[in-house]
Amino acid sequence: MRVILISGAGGNFTAGNDLADFLDKPPMDESAPLYRFIEGFARLQKPFVAAVEGVAIRRWHHDAAALRPGYAGSGARFALPFANLG
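Below the sequence we write its predicted structure tokens.
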């Protein structure tokens, strides 16, 4: 394998977190699944590319952009629901 391709299914990339679950069990330290997921990608020895098409909600597009390059199709839509929560 030379590269890892991360893409969505059904015309969307990611729906984001379940906000009720996130508020009930916020990530408090490095053992939280969110942190382990991001750290896992940061440690990959193989390059990965995020191919975004459709909806990409919440933090995935930030993490992917910070770690590796990504590409967005003409139908990609990014949303940050945090702004509406404040």
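The helical segments are 19-24, 33-42, 60-67, 82-85.
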